[in-house]
From TrEMBL:
Keywords noted in UniProt: Membrane, Transmembrane, Transmembrane helix
Protein's recorded name: DUF4281 domain-containing protein
InterPro entries according to UniProt: ABA4-like (IPR025461)
Lineage, broadest ranks: Eukaryota, Viridiplantae, Chlorophyta, Mamiellophyceae, Mamiellales
Superkingdom in the source lineage: Eukaryota
Transmembrane segments: 12-32, 66-85, 97-119
Length: 138
């Protein structure tokens, strides 16, 4: 999406549900593995109230960090797909927002919203959000 946004290969991979399914299966497998380790479950269970100390203890295990990493990658990919397809539909560059999404998640989405706002101002408001257009009945 960052290096070759208009290539057929990139579009095919991003349109394929297999990409999201693979991320989900990897996450599910890692989450299952973490549930097999009683010390991880114990680390997260601090009664009815979660605290930063119980989260810190829970994330001190490699398996839990792997689950968190898979979660971040899947969510970054979901946000990245939105940014990518929105930029393609409206014909503006999204590389900077995609890089920010990869490394800083929500800051990439903020960057994209600001970018599309600036593009909208320079094009007299002719930028359509792909999420909004998907909700409109034809």
């Amino acid at each position: 999406m960052i290096g070759f946004p208009k290539s057929t290969f990139t579009k095919t991979v991003m349109l394929s549900p297999a990409t999201s399914i693979a991320c989900g299966l990897i996450y599910g497998y890692l989450a299952y593995q973490s549930f097999l380790e009683p010390e991880i479950l114990e680390a997260f269970s601090s009664g009815a109230k979660q605290s930063l100390s119980s989260l810190t203890k829970g994330f001190s295990y490699e398996t839990t960090v792997a689950v968190g990493w898979a979660h971040f990658i899947a969510m970054d990919l979901l946000a990245g797909r939105y940014i990518y397809f929105d930029g393609l539909k409206n014909d503006f560059i999204t590389r900077h927002s995609l890089v920010l999404t990869l490394f800083f998640g929500p800051l990439g989405v903020v960057s994209h919203v600001l970018t599309r706002g600036i593009v909208g101002l320079t094009r007299s408001g002719k930028v359509e959000d792909i999420l909004e257009s998907g909700l409109k009945s034809e």
